[in-house]
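User: My collaborator sent over this chain with a note saying "see what the structure looks like." That's all I know about it. Can you take a look?
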Amino acid sequence: MKKAILTEGPVGRTIIRLMLPMMVGMVGMVIFNLVDTFFIGKLGTQALAAMSFTFPVIMVVTSVSMGIGIGASSVISHAIGKGDSEQVKRLTTDSLLLAVTLVTAIVIVGLMTIRPLFRALGAEGETLDLVTEYMVIWYYGMPFVVIPMVGNNAIRAAGNTVIPSLIMVSSIITNVILDPLLIFGIGPFPRWEMEGAAIATVIGRALSLFISLYFLRRRFDMLTSHYPGFAKLMASWKKILYIGLPSALTQLTTPISMGLITRFVAGFGEAAVAAFGVGTRVEMFIMSPVFALAAVLVSFTGQNYGAGKIDRLEEGIRFSHRLSIGLGMFAVLILFLFGRPIAAIFDSNPAVISIAVLYFLIASPGFGFHGVVGITSSAYSALHHPIHALALNVLRMVLLYVPIAYIASRYWGVGGVFSGASISALISGTVGYISIHRTTARLKAVSPESVN
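Assistant: Without extra context I'll predict from the sequence alone. Here is the result:
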């Protein structure tokens, strides 16, 4: 196993080195989703509707997986910072065993509830049949989705973000190639339509599983075949879940709240919904460096926390906050100057363009503070304060964004909904900034022994 590599060297340069490959992986995931949607859309509106019905369930499973991955990354990076190689192997192996156990339970329940669950979500007739075709294959292939996600987080905990990004890209390329072949039956391949899309996804993810396990075992020596006994296994799972479960809830907070926000926007017509979709997608693209930054900060903070280098981890958090605010200000300028032509790329409808521009003008001042919330949440998870991270996201989305959007929409229309995004980000970002630096100040006040 490699030693801690994030506890030395210039802080800013180290964080940027981690962030850039992570950005590649994140952009790749956006492409992955767009490609699936594009090819399935060629099958017709009904197939696209069936795919849309699967998103909430897949989102829930993905959120749980991401939560376990964050929990694993936090405890593993902490052990790396302490220089405890045996504990690193134990925690990495046990996190994968935990993923397998959760996957098994979810697959069993999922397969038994496909039709009643999606019927309750509104799918019926041939659309429900298409959903069933897709989800049966997806559930059986779920180990290939969840386990690599946890494995890649373990690799990032070791301070390497290049290999996880390459693993993600290899999976995406495989999916892009197989999608049209298996969906439309090109050449010698059978025409499997929705089932073909699911099979392409599973094959692409299976490739990422085998590659990630290879690197964990051969390159990083982070796995062990020794069984520690039930008690020690449960102790490892408890550590991972202590951070992983609140992190999973944190991941779920945003999509659930955004569902309510979308419903508010829908009250102002289809053009408003389309414009809101354009605005949020542009926001995700512009702020992707900050989201990548938040993801890698778990490893950076965890290693330095384990090594007792509180000054260094605090410097890393401050650097990340400044970078997020700076990128947010840059986004405001770009969208102020070029918001209209950017919106026109996605839709030529003048009403959609006008409302999208309104979103850019009202919501963009909060973009940088939105990033601060994500960065602070990652830092809290790495410092073993997952409830703080969850509380910060609940503050932003549930206690501020949704109520403000609802109330403001009664007085200022769709612009009032958009104001909820910027106001909630500004308030929660400020709260997060102050609270995390108070936390690091308290950590600096304790002895190194109590940190380790």
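A starting point for your reply to your collaborator: The chain has a mean pLDDT of 88.
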